[in-house]
Structure formats: structure tokens, C-alpha cells
């Protein structure tokens, strides 16, 4: 579904990604972790071309992201993305947030889009908030709306960029619950997160990044059981020590 | 200091007689007629220049935030060109230099030239505000729009601009009020607006105090009306749940 082949990226002279290669099969859940500044958010944003890369290529369902002839808006429209800071459209109601791209990008009728939006809103347990604006919801609620918004486009896969990092601790679980449910339904997911509980529960593989490189790419059993690299061992001992 | 004589506005401009209704009749006009007509010119120059400034300023401000270097350069060059030359000099350039360089512009009335001059000068300032408004949204909203599958123009239309304009309503209000006040430079190319009226009427009547107070009052009323209209718009488009927004 997602093939990342030898991706390298520079900001000027500074190399942020070095020769990253991995793939996500249909129905797989991949967790990407690593210290801050290791390039995991940059890598995931390369997948739908939100960040440009200078070397290598990425294929989403066979379509090249690096090819200048690729219709990126079309490719992005069926790759769902959830951001750390939710990024709902603040001037629109929740209903509009869920329907606008369906109408403007997919060409669905407003009624059809609203119906689909309400169904998804119900699924994340926020139907009664449909008429509100994002600023009137809590962080956890906003992130659940953001997930519903991404799902409204009927994506073939979902990218999550630290979806719980900006949330108060008590709101983390309501978002993770939605994500676990999605994973169990067979959604293809690439998730940048520090939530190791989530990784243990639903992931197929864990990718560990450090200084722009993929240091470890292992099944979750191997990663948590016997991480090969010293850097991953240190990382795990730090975040699992409490 | 002599006593005030507000009757000066009821005088006819040619005979100097006081018209009983305070408005001229039979072909002659009073200073009040002239004042109101001058106010009309001030408002016409201002409103048209504001339209030009909003249109071009928005376009240039948007270009400066696009990922295309050529467009950014164009927007930057435009902004620097029109904000680094004094307004009065720009008006003279439009009046004396531009028609000389571009012959087809020779027959263009000075009213149009002033609208262009004031509009383009202000567009540079609006371009700066629009750019700041868009950039205040940081990269997250742009990425969110693009990630949904919007094209870049759609991302601007549906995601970035609606919030950017809400954010910059206060500086845009100041700029709109400025344009009313700056329209006074039109007197320099003989547009019969409020400032030119004031210069000529006080010359003819020697009632400078009354004339300038009246003109100041009209400038104030015009700018203040814009201020109130902007406040009304600001309240109408306020987003519930945001800082300063109501609706809970």
C-alpha cells in the first residue's frame, strides 16, 4: 500500500532524512517512534507529499509521490491525515468541517456529504456537537472530529502525526480508543506516536528512527522484546521506566 | 479672534449673498453646496481607491505566501515599490510622469489617476497585512487543507483566507480610515475634494476657522462611519469558541 524507497531530504545543507526505506502492507498498522527531531513527522508528511524530498521515491497504492506529473491533490484526497494540533477549520461548524472536502474535492452532494459526516461523527461519539465550532470542543473531542473528517473521504490508508501529543492526559484514551477500533477494522495505518501501549496492542511493526534514519524496523514482539540497536534500547528504557 | 460666522456656508459663491434656503438656486451655488459636492468627491476617490487597494493588496499579499518563488518575488517587488515612495510624490508621478511614458493614458481624467495612485499606494500596505494574516495561521492549516485533497487555490479559498481576513479586520479598518484621510492629497491634482474646497473657500471668504472645522468634521464623520461598519462586520463574522468570540 505504501512503499518508501531510499528517501532523503535536506533543509538547505542540513540532512533531515537519510535513506529511509520501509513499506506498509494493506491492513497493516505501523508505529513510528523515536526521539524528537529524529525525522518521524517529516517522514510521514513525505508520504502524502506535504513535505518534499530530494532523493528516493514513495509509492502510495502504486502512484509515485515524487513524480511531478502525479496529481497530488487527488492522491491526498484518499490518504487520510490526522495532525498533532488537530487543524480543524476553526471558522466552520463541525458539520461543515466534515462535509466541505467531500463536496469540493469528491463532488458529493451536500446532503450525501452531511449524511456521511453525521454517521462518522456518531461513530466517534460526537453527534450532539455537530452544530458547534471547533473552538467550543475539548482537545480530545477535536481530535476525534479530525479523525472523522479524514475518514469522511473514504481513505485507503491513514497517517497519524503524533495524534495524542497535544492532549491532556485524560483525553488521550478517548482518541486512542477510536484509533484502536480503526486498526481492528483493518484500516491501513502509519502512526507516529509515543504511545507504546497502543503500539503493543494493535501494531504489526514498529519503526524506530534516530537522526533522520530508520534504525530499527521490527515486529512489535522483536522491538519490545529484544531491540537490536543500542539507541532503541536506551529510548525504550527511558519511556517505559515509569 | 473674531466671532464665528456659520452663515458663511449659506453665501452664494459668486455674488456673496446669503441664500435664504442655504442652498443655491438659479445656477449659482452656495458654499454649502460646494462643501457637500467636495465631500462627494472625497468619498468617491476613497471608496474607489479602497476597492483597488483591497483587490490588488489581497492578490499581492496572497502571492507572497505561495510556494512559488517567482510569485513571491512579484508580490514583494510590488509591495516595496508602492510603500517606499511618498504618497504625494506617487500622485504626481501618476499625474505627470505615467501619461508621458504611456501615451494612451494621456486622456485619462485626473480623478482616475488619483484613484490608481491612492489605490496602489494603499495596496502595498494591505498586501503586508494580508501576508501577515495568512502567515499567522502557521503551516498547520495549509497542510490540513492540502491533506484533505484541496488544490492550493481551494486551500486559500476555503481554509486560509476566511481566517486570515478575520484576523486582519482591525488593521484593515485602520487602512480603510487612512484612505479617507489620505484622499486629501487629491487636491494637489485639482480634484475638487474637501481639502481643495477648504483652501479655496477660506481664500474667498476669509472664514478659515469655520471652513476648516466643517471639513475636519466631515473627514471625521467619514472615517468614523468606516470604523463603525468594520466593527459591525467584525462582530458578524466572529467565530464562536475563539478568543474574543461569543456563542457559548
Would you give an account of this structure?
- The complex is a heterodimer of chains A (242) and B (248).
- By secondary structure, chain A is an alpha/beta fold.
- In chain A, 38% of the residues lie in helices and 25% in strands.
- Chain A contains 9 helices and 10 strands.
- In chain A, the strands form 2 sheets. A 6-stranded mixed β-sheet of chain A has the order 6-7-8-3-9-10, with helices on both faces. Chain A has a 4-stranded antiparallel β-sheet with strand order 2-1-4-5, covered by helices on one side.
- Chain A is globular.
- Chain A starts with a strand and ends with a helix.
- The model of chain A has no long low-confidence stretch (mean pLDDT 93).
- In chain B, helix 1 crosses helix 4 and helix 8 packs antiparallel against helix 9.
- Helix content of chain B is 69%, strand content 0%.
- With 248 residues, chain B is mainly α.
- Chain B has a single domain, classed as MetI-like (MetI-like fold), CATH 1.10.3720.
- Chain B is elongated, with a radius of gyration of 22 Å.
- The mean pLDDT of chain B is 92.
- Chains A and B meet through helix 2 and helix 3 of A and helix 5 and helix 6 of B.
Number of helices, counting only DSSP H or I runs of 4 residues or more of chain A: 9
Number of self-contained structural domains of chain B: 1
Query: Structural class from helices and strands of chain A?
Result: alpha/beta
Number of helices of chain B: 9
One letter per element, helices H and strands E, the order of chain B comes to: HHHHHHHHH
Run of helices and strands of chain A = EEEHEEHEHHHEHEHEEHH
Feature tags:
heterodimer, A: 242 residues, alpha/beta, 6-stranded mixed beta sheet, 9 helices, 38% helix, B: 248 residues, mainly alpha, MetI-like fold
Amino acid at each position: 500500500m505504501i512503499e518508501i524507497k531510499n528517501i532523503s531530504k535536506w533543509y538547505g545543507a542540513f540532512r533531515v532524512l537519510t535513506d529511509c526505506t520501509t513499506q506498509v502492507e494493506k491492513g497493516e498498522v505501523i508505529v513510528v517512534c523515536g526521539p524528537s527531531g529524529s525525522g518521524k513527522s517529516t517522514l510521514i508528511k513525505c508520504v502524502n507529499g506535504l513535505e518534499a524530498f530530494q532523493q528516493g521515491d514513495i509509492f502510495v497504492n502504486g502512484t509515485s509521490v515524487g513524480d511531478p506529473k502525479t496529481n497530488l491533490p487527488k492522491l491526498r484526497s484518499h490518504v487520510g491525515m490526522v495532525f498533532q494540533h488537530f487543524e480543524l477549520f476553526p471558522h466552520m461548524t463541525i458539520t461543515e468541517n466534515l462535509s466541505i472536502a467531500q463536496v469540493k474535492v469528491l463532488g458529493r452532494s451536500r446532503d450525501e456529504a452531511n449524511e456521511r459526516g453525521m454517521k462518522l461523527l456518531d461513530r466517534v461519539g460526537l453527534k450532539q456537537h455537530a452544530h458547534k465550532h471547533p473552538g467550543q470542543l475539548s482537545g480530545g473531542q477535536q481530535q476525534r472530529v479530525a479523525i472523522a473528517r479524514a475518514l469522511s473521504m473514504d481513505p485507503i490508508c491513514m497517517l497519524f502525526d503524533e495524534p495524542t501529543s497535544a492532549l491532556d492526559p485524560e483525553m488521550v484514551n478517548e482518541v486512542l480508543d477510536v484509533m484502536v477500533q480503526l486498526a481492528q477494522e483493518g484500516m491501513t495505518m502509519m502512526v507516529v506516536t509515543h504511545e507504546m501501549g497502543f503500539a503493543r496492542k494493535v501494531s504489526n511493526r514498529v519503526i524506530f528512527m534516530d537522526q533522520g534514519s530508520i534504525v530499527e524496523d521490527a515486529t512489535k514482539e522483536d522491538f519490545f522484546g529484544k531491540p537490536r540497536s543500542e539507541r532503541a534500547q536506551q529510548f525504550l528504557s527511558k519511556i517505559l521506566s515509569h | 479672534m473674531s466671532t464665528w460666522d456659520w452663515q458663511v456656508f449659506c453665501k452664494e459663491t459668486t455674488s456673496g449673498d446669503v441664500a435664504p434656503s442655504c442652498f443655491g438656486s438659479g445656477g449659482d451655488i452656495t458654499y454649502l453646496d460646494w462643501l457637500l459636492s467636495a465631500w462627494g468627491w472625497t468619498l468617491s476617490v476613497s471608496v474607489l481607491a479602497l476597492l483597488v487597494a483591497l483587490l490588488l493588496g489581497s492578490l499581492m499579499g496572497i502571492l507572497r505566501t505561495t510556494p512559488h518563488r517567482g510569485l513571491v518575488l512579484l508580490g514583494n517587488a510590488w509591495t516595496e515599490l508602492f510603500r517606499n515612495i511618498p504618497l504625494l510624490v506617487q500622485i504626481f508621478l501618476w499625474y505627470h510622469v505615467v501619461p508621458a511614458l504611456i501615451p494612451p493614458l494621456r486622456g485619462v481624467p485626473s480623478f482616475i489617476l488619483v484613484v490608481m495612485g491612492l489605490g496602489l499606494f494603499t495596496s502595498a500596505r494591505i498586501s503586508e497585512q494580508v501576508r501577515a494574516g495568512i502567515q499567522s495561521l502557521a503551516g498547520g492549516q495549509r497542510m490540513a487543507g492540502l491533506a484533505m485533497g484541496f488544490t492550493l487555490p481551494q486551500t486559500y479559498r476555503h481554509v486560509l483566507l476566511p481566517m486570515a481576513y478575520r484576523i486582519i479586520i482591525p488593521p484593515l479598518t485602520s487602512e480603510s480610515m487612512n484612505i479617507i484621510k489620505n484622499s486629501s492629497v487629491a487636491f494637489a491634482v485639482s480634484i475638487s475634494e474637501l481639502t481643495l474646497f477648504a483652501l479655496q473657500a477660506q481664500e474667498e471668504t476669509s472664514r478659515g476657522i469655520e471652513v476648516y472645522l466643517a471639513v475636519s468634521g466631515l473627514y471625521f464623520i467619514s472615517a468614523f462611519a468606516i470604523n463603525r461598519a468594520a466593527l459591525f462586520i467584525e462582530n458578524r463574522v466572529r467565530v464562536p469558541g475563539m478568543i474574543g468570540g461569543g456563542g457559548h
